[in-house]
Amino acid sequence: MTLFRIFLLALLVSLLVYTLMVGAAHGWNLIPPFFAEIQAMTWQGQFNFDFMGFLLLSALWCAWRNDFSPLGLGLAILGATGGILFLSIYLLILSFQTGGDIKAVMLGSRRAQS
Q: For the chain, which ranges sit under pLDDT 50?
């Protein structure tokens, strides 16, 4: 679990720094260029479309893990928009809340006990 937490922290810190640098250089309006590449049918668009699938899968997992509760739906929105900046923090928090039990991290405490 320690290596997993180090990996999550490394992702979080490196992507946060990268995001701040890109945002400072190119502005913070990501949505139009993201979808413009998809619409243009370029390789960058293919990557963006693929990445969007991962974001939606992350959102669905967050909602499911929390039984589609209001909290789970809120986390799903964060998962769909925040990417690894959200997911790394969420998984770090869960890793400590569950005492490092990966089954509970992935399934939730109720499902992990059955």
A: none
